[in-house]
Amino acid sequence: MTLFLLAYLGGVLTILSPCILPVLPFVFARADRPFVKSGLPLLVGMALSFAAIATLAAVGGGWAVEANRVGRAIALILFAGFALLLIFPSLSDRAMQPLVRLGERLSGPGRKEGIGGSLLLGLATGLLWAPCAGPILGLILTGAALSGASANTVLLLLAYALGAATSLGLALLIGGRVFTAMKKSLGAGQWVRRALGVLVLAAVVVIALGLDTKLLTKVSSSQTNAIETGLAKALGMEDRMPSGGSASLSDQGPMPPFDGATGWLNSAPLDAKALKGKVVLVDFWTYSCINCIRTIPEIEALHKRYAKDGLVIVGVHTPEFAFERDPANIRKAIGDFGITYPVAIDSNYTIWRAFKNQYWPAHYLADADGRIRYHHFGEGGAAQTEAAIRTLLAEAGRNPGDGMAQEQAQGASAAASGEAATRETYVGFGRGANFASPGGFVRGKPASYAVPARLAPGQWAYGGQWTVELSRGRLNAAGGSITMRFKARDLHLVLGSPNSKPVRFRVALDGKAPGADHGMDIDAAGNGQVTDHRLYQLIRQKSGAAERTFTITFLDPGVEAYAFTFG
């Protein structure tokens, strides 16, 4: 219930954001009509349309985006005809084009009011509504993209849309009274209607030419995002993973099977029969997750130390980004990280959902009877996890001896410094918090971005020609950059290159070559190249977590950027 309340309140706040401005002319164009028969169906249609399109955009891939573009084009044509009929009522007698006649039937003057036309106009408005992806909507969209379409996802998006419709409805009620007062005082109802028609037509032109984002380049939505973030925190839904493990080894229920795995690496498929009498450690991970990468050495050390004593480790690889679904990429990552224990490929999230898991990394420990007795989320807790393993092995009649696991970690796998003040930051519009380029994101379309002269801690910006999608940014022309103000010892960036074509880049710290502070994937001059889809360690500051300005400039086009992580 808390999630739905959060989504609804986030939608209510949308009216405070500049991204709602292009939609307002379509809503207020019907302010002179009865609210129950006209305004309310319009808002309901808008909410339904938005919920459907947002769900498809989150989980449907490129075909859904293209379908939405076609729908937007049809909606723009419909509203253009609607606007002309408001401006020139005489056109209703001469209109011959089908869409104009449809506009006349829906909104022509003098016709009897009905809800069908308003509902259809609302559906069209929803196609044009591109709300700001603030923290709350970002959580919903990302959850949909990760776990797939579900009734819960649609209902959350609908709650968000209904929240926006509520605030717009209140504005529409006020606007309707103003419209009535103007007609009475001025005796100019037809002129007011024509003025609204001009506003609708102007909005159509602005959206069709992509000028809506350019006209709002000097208007910031950071205040709205700050309110949403505060709301999420107040309701306990801040986008932060909990850390820690079970307080005891109490029974937490049966361990779900691994039937949903789409493939296995380092092992034949493991089922209940193969695991009977074994203590099983299940590790949910994905290969570009820095928190997961830093736990791999301890998991591998546990495997080497306790496999002979009856411990079976199953690494369940559940992807966060689309490129992590490729079995070849997973196989390469396993080799790069030196993983020798069995890995189940869970690209359809079947095992993830069976465990009701929500986090990377997450560890679940089952006893020899197949009952989950322990869990741990996030990094850390290696000693606690090993102690739980030893206890459950002893319960199963095994004697693990006195020696403890000895992990060996280096490079990006080394433990975090514990000093990082900057949080993981995604660079797609779905969860792109603290984005500082003027005008915000242009969603799913090529656009030119600029880097502000000054960035606050945690802020970041694109520079150059990019197409920003739900979970990533794609560089359209050489010379593009990403700049971030951060405080951490280590800075990593998840990057990829289509078809593994090398993309050269250069990194700078405070405008200079990183020198001794370079990461393992660049040299002291800041030079490197993107070849695979993976996490790249770009900065490791020798003096610890100092606050710096990081810039990466790509010398070739085509790179895909996903997320910053820190340590």
TrEMBL record:
What UniProt keywords are attached to this protein's entry? Membrane, Transmembrane, Transmembrane helix
One Pfam family, short name: Redoxin
Identify the domain of life. Bacteria
User: InterPro entries, alphabetically?
Assistant: Redoxin, Thioredoxin-like_sf, Thioredoxin_10, Thioredoxin_domain, Thioredoxin_ResA/DsbE_sf
Q: What is this protein called?
A: Cytochrome c biogenesis protein DipZ
- What transmembrane ranges does the database entry give? 6-28, 40-64, 70-91, 119-142, 154-179, 191-211
Sequence ranges assigned to domain Thioredoxin in this UniProt record: 249-394
CDD domains, per database record: TlpA_like_DipZ_like (cd03012)
